[in-house]
Structure formats: structure tokens, C-alpha cells
Amino acid sequence: MHSGDFFFQAFIYLMAAVLSVPIAQRLGLGSVLGYLIAGVIIGPFGLRLVGQEGEDVMHFAEFGVVMMLFLVGLELQPSLLWRLRLPILGLGGLQVLVTAAVFAVIGIGLRVSWQMSLAVGLILAMSSTAIVLQTLNEKGLTKTEAGQASFSVLLFQDIAVIPILALMPLLAIKDGAVSLVAANGVIFAAAEQTAEQGAALPAWQQALLVMGTVVGIILGGRFLTPPVFRFIATTRLREIFTATALLLVIGIALAMQQVGLSPALGTFVAGVVLAENEYRHELESDIEPFKGLLLGLFFIAVGASINFNLLIQQPLLILALVIGLAIVKFGVLFILGRFFRMDLSQSFLFAFALAQGGEFAFVLFSFATQNRVLTPTVAGPLVAAVALSMMLTPLLMTMNDRFVQPHFAVSEDEREADEIDDNENPVIIAGFGRFGQIVGRLLLANGCQITVLDHSPTQIDLLRRFEWKVFYGDASRIDLLHAAGAAQAKLLVVAIDDREKILDIVNLTRKHFPHLKVLARAIDRRHAYELIRRGVEVVQRETFSSALDMGVEALKLLGVRSYKANRAARTFKSHDEEAMYEIAVTEADDSAILARSRQLAHDLEQLLQSDNRDLIGEDDRAWDISELRKDA
Amino acid sequence: MGSPNQILILFAHPALEKSRVNRRLIQAVQGLDAVMVRDLYEEYPDFNIRVKVEQDLLLAHDIIVFHHPFYWYSCPAILKEWQDLVLEYGFAYGHEGIALRGKKFLSAITTGGGETAYCRQGSNVYTIRELLVPFEQTARLCGMDYLPPFVVFGTHKLREQSEIAKHVEDYQTVITALRDDRIHWDQLPQFKVLNSNLDRAIRKAEVSHHA
Predict the structure, then answer these.
(1) CB atoms within 10 A of CB A483
(2) Which of A562, A564, A567, A572 to mutate to test the interface with B (most CBs of B within 10 A)?
């Protein structure tokens, strides 16, 4: 492929995404459906803009799924995972077994061999991790009961892919000569291309290798990454930090593939290990954009790979398959949901969310066909049905939102109430240098929980030693603010020392988190004007108050009594602040620098004159005895 | 009925967040028509009282209320500071100090000790009226009418919500009656404490304006 071609392809994919996703979003269909439709439109059965390369893209795009699982892992503290062990094994295990059994029985009823029926059942039991998590996330449902249950089931399915792959060769009907050794070999093969490598080693060595790799990831994640990240962070090059994060994910994916495990599972484990890491937020926000785009690419590829020829040839069959698939899965999930004591609204959400085929089905179908478990004539329509069912999911979810959930409005409210996330703190302090520290210490000393963002690694290390909650990162990035919980926080204290960055943060916050009250450090008076014009709730000039205190001390050394000096300073302060707000507002559209500086000089002159008047006498009339004496 | 009396309540409590009685009293009058509650500790945490602002407020109101817990036979520090600064010579007293003349003055206070503590035999020896003499004389020097004080005695012993509720209701009654001019002004001198017998001090609110 020469570069012109590559650019053209990239252009088409990006164009499709940019055009269709916002439209889908606006129609309330969510981004996933937007991507899928974009894929259909540009695919071989639409505009034929991307075609034969579809499969290659698919392969590359699966990387998006890998990234997603890494991020999911990052969100999951090991303690949460441990708490979920019951739903993962119980709910997830039952879902796979019961769904597979129902499909198998249907297959046998249709006089298909039991081997084929079981294989199809197992494959169709899989749901789409990518679509479900993305959709739940977009709708803000990940922390609901149904969201957690969905996650548990998906996690179980991702793990179950491995034994299912191992089972496939045993189900082969025509070629009974599949040896046990070969079957053992593929136990650890998650992707078909690694099957040969896996088969090359005896099973026990393979097992040892797998264990070693997983333990390596866990130990490396715990002990090796913190110093490495710290070192990288000291370079203060953001792109190198991003590169490190990507390197980590790709490296783990590669290692897992080498030993024949699912790369997605590997990065998931790595994510969980790093969930307690101090650089978690930064990692998250660095990987997030890549994940989003690659997942989008993946969805586009799924859309493009739907075989519309089959659909045209056998429309009724495929329609029946899609509907049957959705109904069986929905039924099993709904009953399991009730069985596991989810309330009705959550059971509906849970069943609607997972009632589709998954991306692993594509891998498993092709693997099963290669192993002659299934014939292409059987697999073809099923693959099309799975792809269509994936497209159906966002629609089903929207339907659930519009028509089903409104019936449970009351229980919905109750759920909302106990969902309060006490993980995130009410105050975020951006910048923890000489200014932010003072604010933070006062708040902490008064029992107020704070989240600190700072981009000085040395600072972070020191604070962490005192067990403070501190995160590494550049606070002028909206994604990092998001990760630090800006959506839930009440106050944002902007205490960094970079004039432009402070304004950037204020602009971004005003736009994305309008509820957040902003307290900003102003570098000087001019900077304060800028902040006031942006409607910042509290503007504090960084050196003003301490300089004022020093002025008081100076007055005292000159022989002014403490109390008088102190009152003089307070008066000065309120005059100065009033004037500052007045000028900031009246001069809002004065952009010429020259005019402003002239104005500032003039202001200063006026201020000094008024100080002269005010500070002597006026306020102290109450203690002026000459007036009284006159009267006496 | 003429236009309502404008009431300015100067409220001083340094630890309102810990208050059981005063917080509820103040809530009961906050937001009433023609009543302005000015929380001095909230307004001036640095005690830097803006004299001009305060004097303008005094001019704009007909009835001035000092509302505070009774601290050491007087008011909390900020209210004393307020008096020292705002009630200036030439404004509130002296030859030309006639700004407050004809306005009415009310003390609304809470005491920890019970009513019996405020008599010759009690631990405070003096009656509450005697102890409030500095406020009474301040009002007189400013040419203001001094009303019998509104006193909630024995706040330490008010345990039940219902016990507090009675005083809260009384306070609201007194303030609205002052606002709407429903006080039997001529009866007042016989009361030691305004809220000792509200039925005699206050005319019932007219249900309808007009027959």
C-alpha cells in the first residue's frame, strides 16, 4: 500500500466517523451505532470506499478493544474485583452455560448435530464487551446494579473464550483425528494465528509460561512501573509519557499473544494492577483518546464487514436468526437477573444491554470453521446475524430508555440516591506549589477532603509519603480534570503559577463544568482583570495579601500603633478590591495594550491619591476627641 | 394601615453554627417583608466595619434591633465595636447628631441562666433590665425610644424542640407586630420584658383589611 492510498483510507474512515457519529449522537442513538452505520455506508455493500482491506482493518482495530479493557482494569481496584467474584463466577458462568444450552437444544431440535449445536450455542453466548461497555459508559450507567452485573458477565465471557477455543477441536465432526496434544495446545490460544505457536510446546511448559507472564505483569506493574513513570514524568515531556503508556499496553498485548493468551485479558490484568498507582489518572487520560478512536475504527470495521449479499439472498433466515438470538439471550439474562435478585428495572437494563452477539464470535466462528466444526454455509448467516445483533444493541438500549424505564421512575430515583460516589473529593486543587499548599493545608486541617493535581514529580513523592491524595498531571487538560472528578466536585482551586494556563483552565472549566465554583490565583492586577471578566468566583492576587501584611509590619516599625496599622491595611484592601472589580468590568472591551497600560498608570495614580486621603483620618473619627472637645 | 415600619436587625453570634436557639430565632425573621437581618460576624469577619455603609442602613430603617446572646452582661465584641464606630459623634449624638432621633430600639437577647438567676437573690444579683441599662442609655442618648427587651431565659435548659419553638414563634410575632404597628405603645412601660405577656402588648393581626 503506498502512502497516497493510506491517506485516502484514513481520510475515508475519519470522514465517515466525523459525519455519522455526531448525527447519531444528536438523534439519541449513541456513538456506537453511529460508527456501525458509518461502516455500513463506506463498506463494500455501501459506497465501496473501503472493501477488501476491511479484514486487515478489523485486525488492527481489535487493538481498540485491548485498550478499552486496559482502561476498564484501571477503573477497578482489586478490592472491587474481589467483591465482584460472586457475580463474575455465578452470574457470568450461568449466563454462558444456560444460553449455550438453550441454543444447543434449539439446534438439536432442528436436527443439527449436537456437536455443531453446542459450538454455535457457546459462540452465541458471548456478548459484545466493546459495545456494551461503551454504551453503558455513554449513558452513565456503569455504576448501576445492572451495569456492574453486565461487567461481571462480560468479564467472565472474555475469560471463557479460552476454554471454548480449547473445546472447539474436540467438537470437530468430520476429521476425528484431532489429537489430544493439539487440543491441549490450543487451550491457551485466544487468537487463531497463535494456535501454532501454542501447539509447539508441551502443555505443562505452556502453562508455566502463561503463569510466568501473568505473574510478571503483576509484579512489574506493582514494583517496576512507579519508578519508571516517575522518571519519565521528570522529563516533563507529555508525549513521552503518552508514548510510555502506549508502550506498556502494546508490550503487554504482545507478550500475552506470544504465550497464547487473549491480549485484552492481559491488558485488563495490567490495568487492575495499576489501578492503585499514583499515575492512574494520567495514564487514563493519555490512553483515552486512542481507545476512543480505535474502538470507533473497530465498530466501523464491524459495520463494513456485514455481508449484505447473504442478507439479500436469505433475508428471512437472517432476520429470524437475529430475532431468535436476541430473544433467547434476553430471556436468559432477564430470568438470571431476577434470580439474582435484581429489581425489575435493573433486570430489563441488564437483559437489553447484553442481548447481542459479541466480537469474539467472529474469532470463534472462523476458528470453528477452520477446525471443521462448522461449515461455511452454517457460519456465514450466523456471522451476519451476530453483526446485525450488535447493531441492534444501541437501538434496544434507546428503546429501554424511552419506553421501559419510565415505568420504573420511582425505583430509578431510589437507585440514584444510594449511588453517591464518596470516592471523589469536593475540592480539587490544581497546582500544589507554594500557593496551593497553603490553601490545601487549611482545608485539610478543617476536615475538608481535597484532590490535588500537580505536575512536579518531586512534590508528589513528598506528599504521598505523608499519605495525601495526590495525582500527577497537567491540570489544563480537560480530560485530566474529568478523571480527577471535576464533574462531582464543588470547588476548583486554580493555584498553578502559569498565567496563560490559569486562563486556559478557567475557560475550560467554565465551558465543561459550569457548576464548579472556581477560585483562581491571579499573577497580578491585569491577570486579575482577565479572571474577573471570566466570572471567576474568587480572584486572589498571589502576593497581595502577604504584601499587605508586610505593609502593616512596616507601618508598625515606623511607630504606627498595631491596631491602626491593621485597620489601615483592611481599608486599603477593600478600596483596592472595589476599584479592581470596577475597572475589570468597565474596561471589558478595551483590547489595545497601550490604552490599557495608560489606564493602569492612571488607576495607580488615582489609587495612590485616594489612599492618601482615606488612610489618614476619615475612618477614625470615632476616636477623634477634638470634635468632642469643641462641643463641650 | 400605613406603610410598614422598616426593621433592621443587627445580629451578632460568633459561633452561629453551634447555636441551638439563636439560629432558629434568626431563621424565623429572615426574609420577612420590610425586615433586614444583618449578620455582623458574617459581614465583617475581620471586624473592619464600614462605617458609612452601616450609617446609611440606620437612616433607612425605623426600628433598630440588637439581637445577640448576652455575653458577660453585654453583647459579643463585634456589636460593641459596631457601636463604637458607627454611633459617631455628630451622627448619633452631640449637637448635630440627630440621625437616629425618633427611631425605636429593641434588645433581643438570649441568656444561659434562668429568669430566677436575674434578681437580688439570684447568682447575677441584678435584674436583666438593670444589666441592660448601658443599652437603654445608649438609645436615650441617641434620641431613640427604648422598648422593653425581648429575652429568652435559660437557653441551656431548653432541651425539647417544642420548648424552643414557643420562643421562635413569639419572636416572629413581636417582629411582625413592630413592623405592622400593632403594638400597644402606651402599655409598654409596665412590661419588664416584652415577651412576658404578648397578648396584652400586641393587637391581633387584622384578618381582612377592609369591611
Answers:
(1) 22
(2) A567
